[in-house]
Amino acid sequence: MTEELPLDPGGTPSADKRVDDLLAALTLDERIALLHQFTPGVDRLGLAAFRTGQEALHGVAWMGPATVFPQSVGLGATWNEELVRRVGDAVSSEVRAMRARDARVGLNVWAPTVNLLRHPLWGRNEEGYSEDPCLTAAIATAYTRGLRGTHPTYWRTAPVLKHWLAHNNETARDTASSSVRPRVLHEYDLKAFRRPVEEGAVAGVMPAYNLVNGRPNHVSPYLREQLRTWTAQELLVCSDAGAPSNLVDSEHYYATHEEAAAAALLAGVDSFTDHGTDPSRITARIRGALERRLITEADIDTAVRRQLDVRARLGEFEDDDPLPPGAFDTDAHRALAREAAEQAVVLLKNDGLLPLPGDARIALVGLLADECKTDWYSGTLLHRSTPLDGLRERFGPDRVTFTEGVDRVRLRCDEGWLYVPEGAAATEARGAEGALDPALLAGRTDLPPLTTRTDEGTELALVDWGNGVLTLRAPDGRYLSVADDGFVRASADQPGGWIVQETFTLEAAGDGHLLRHTGSGRYVVAAAEGVQVADRGTVFRMEVVERGADAVTRAAADADVVIVVAGNDPHINGRETEDRTTLDLPGQQDALWRAARAANPDTVLALVSAYPYAVPDADRELPALLWTAHGGQAAGRALARVLAGDVSPAGRLPQTWYAADSDLPDLLDYDIIGSRQTYLYYEGTPLYPFGHGLTYSSFAYADLSAEVRAGAVQLTFTVTNTGPRTADEVPQLYVRPLGMPVPRPRRQLLAHRRLTLAPGARERITYPVPVADLGHFDVAHDRWSVTSGTYELLVGASSEDIRLTTEITLDGDAPAPRPVLAHGLDAAAYDTQRGTEIVDRTKTRGDAVTPSGATGELHYLACDFGADGVTGIRVEAAGEGTVTVGDGRTLTVPATGGPYRYVTLDADFTATGVRDLRVTLDGTVRLARLTFIPRRLDT
């Protein structure tokens, strides 16, 4: 076990003889045990216990204090791969350092999330980088490189990409199917995963909870047909938590867990994350599948080998750790956290109000003005900086006044006033810089529950986060929370947890309201032993002590400038398990900026959020708006430095900001081409376009040239800083194919670069772009294709702020009709459709199409039936209904006895030459394929 690892040409120990030796020495039971997330050690072989899965999206999560960087969508907003690589490097260093003192910290990190931010109402918007596959792939590649480390042989951590595939909804996330036609699959969803894998810093992927084209991702044939063809390196596929059981329990895709486990293993799942730390049920299912001959020992060995290969790459089988110990919470990491937060700030609008003069008297208001929010995948903050901290540090405490702007209320019922007893201040739970540790406070039962008193009530801060969801906070800053014993206490520093216990809703009742606890669904009731939740609640009447908008009005009137900090709490109204229902800013926060603006026209709206908002009125009425994702531990200091002009903002929007909910497609509509989604296809006017972001300087673009050589487009231009201060610019290159035979994007990002220029400085920039990147997936011929023709290249500061254009002509693939005589028609390879969805042809591979309602239509363009034409058609279909081809040839599909029981039906059908074909589906029919009978076969 001490011999040197042999290296493959890529420099990684994937051919390690010790992996072979270990695999051969393990018993069958030991190998089966390795298939669960928590694998036991094998002492006789010197094999340590191991677990897959350490969350590390923007810092080490769930393992206590760690450096917290901006949310992933904020890292995407930097448009800066080198910065993100350094963030990944810092995170992997802290993983190693933390593991040295805590064996629970895993080296197989589940990060980054590369799901595309197709729909801005997705609850996990904060976890992705961008709506664009090119930008997402670039940022993800950079982060995985940092996580992998720079050692030529051994990996600091082993990154796993999440979540394979076409996953962008929390609503019914384990049962909803994303209908993804081939063009969208290849041009959009797969594209985000492919580059990070091809560039060699990815250890594996995690399938998503959802289904794609009717088939659960955990048995996706694309794992074998796509993912594993992109690299010669072994890849470890780790299931998402509980997903193996979902195959039976919620998706009902298999009748037994043995069948499900076998199918997942055969599809390529190597590590089963299920039933927490208890491996017994998974190992029993694998054993049962083996006994039923659904799998073989060789199938088990394939998965085990992939796991051992990753562990070898991590240096686990060396006598001494071949990598230096990691660094933790260093000065460099703290500086990097601030740099990342600064680069993530996007200046949306500025009519000259920003940057602020150094002697400005500032009124800082808003529900997030003195907050440093974390999310579900954050580590515990070692340091924190709120906007209030940052502005007082930068401008001086005497020049910054603060008003939160919350409504202050008291609640009364027949039993008396709601009262928060004075209790322990929980000082033992205070961590770094006096921060309360929510993990220690939430759910506590040692603090006294609320009571009622007849003489006086406690004044509570009421925050309406939108959709009627409220939080209530005691004067000492603790949130009302419900513990497992059902009592209501002021015991949480922040809302949080997998099931948030700090949120409530009001339901009208009598002359007051019932207070419903959202975490349990039960109602707050005033009982003799203390306030608690029950099936029936107490009616409370609310006394408003002060409206938050009134406090904001007073503060705004006495200031030179007002900064309103608004946004979301990452645990409320949009998070894992919960999609948003609207783009609107919550009403209470909307009222605050309006009150500030009425009192003082010099009002800035700073949005701090995990996702976009629709704020057209604020854009129209306010002189300046900014956005940043929750920026981690240095968020407040970074925002203050941008507002002061110490840093010129240069973040760019990683996704389109729409003006209204009516601009959005259905949440579950994944056909970005057909429904014109994202900046690639959207034909409306966005509030702010993809790639948008302003600076405090100005930049000129000039001298554009482009040529095609050696399979690449070489595009060169000059950027000059024509403004008064050093600033960053992000020149973006887009392509717009002209006059193409199939729909292509309005414009499509090909390259970008973030650069820093001093006043008057200029830089000549060259973007080499492979010609293949200008192509599309040709469904007519089932291939990637670059069509001959003219392509417009556009260079600018955003997808809509184009400064330079030129055209090139490519000699590529000539448009050709569909060879339907030779190859027939796969139903899912349509050009356009109406009222259909793609479903699974069989449980293991292939697609079919079925109506999403009573009737659906498919359109196939330029089908070549030959000069002699065809005289017949053959339809492969299942289910029950009719298939009508062309202008009226109808084939009746009898009830076939199940969705996977296909029949073949023949009928007369005549067509000659090249023509479009329309196919109409009715009933529950599932159409898999059409083939045609040439005329010559009838003579």
UniProtKB/TrEMBL annotation:
SUPFAM superfamilies: (Trans)glycosidases, Actin-crosslinking proteins, Beta-D-glucan exohydrolase, C-terminal domain, Galactose-binding domain-like
CDD domains documented for this protein: beta-trefoil_FSCN_BglX-like
Residue ranges of every copy of the Fibronectin type III-like domain listed in the record: 729-799
Biological-process GO terms, alphabetical: arabinan catabolic process; xylan catabolic process
Keywords per UniProt: Hydrolase, Signal
UniProt cross-references to SMART domains, sorted A to Z: Fn3_like
Pfam family, one: Glyco_hydro_3_C
A GO molecular-function descriptor: alpha-L-arabinofuranosidase activity
InterPro entries, alphabetized: Actin-crosslinking, BXL, Fn3-like, Galactose-bd-like_sf, GH, Glyco_hydro_3_C, Glyco_hydro_3_C_sf, Glyco_hydro_3_N
UniProt similarity note: Belongs to the glycosyl hydrolase 3 family.
Name of this chain's protein: Glycoside hydrolase family 3 C-terminal domain-containing protein
